[in-house]
Specification:
Distance between the termini: 25 Å
Low-confidence stretches: none
Number of helices: 6
Number of strands: 0
Number of domains: 1
Shape: globular
Helix content: over 70%
Order of helices and strands: HHHHHH
Length: 128
């Protein structure tokens, strides 16, 4: 496995654990889970498109995050049945909130900034 893919996979796993814990600890604001969901989405896309430009991964992850949120406006029985399962609730969410779009945007920006910092740090180390 390519080193950057392993790093991305590790970030994804740690983000999932942190996101699940954020829902169990009452003093953590609820939007943190949404922020982490989008953060994770960035690294899932980065895992798939490991050599893509940062801005491309950012845009794709933001589009997916927004699409999932807007899909919550669709309330057919079949998709609501999926949303009532644990996995469905974690992936698809339950109800549309405009504030979630802000949390997703913040999560993708945070992921992009951290990734860019990591790449720059690696480039500096390789140039020495």
């Amino acid at each position: 496995m390519h080193k950057s893919r392993l790093i991305n996979l590790t970030i994804i796993i740690l983000t999932i654990i942190t996101g699940l814990l954020s829902r169990k600890i009452s003093f953590i604001p609820f939007f943190i889970g949404d922020l982490l969901w989008a953060f994770m989405m960035y690294y899932i896309i980065r895992l798939i498109l490991v050599k893509s430009e940062i801005i491309r991964v950012f845009i794709i992850s933001l589009i997916i995050s927004f699409s999932v949120e807007f899909s919550q406006l669709y309330q057919a029985d079949w998709i609501n049945n999926i949303r009532h399962t644990l996995l469905g609730r974690l992936i698809l969410g339950q109800g549309f909130l405009w504030s979630d779009l802000l949390a997703y945007t913040a999560g993708c920006i945070l992921a992009m900034i951290l990734h860019k910092y990591y790449i720059l740090k690696l480039e500096r180390q390789n140039n020495k």
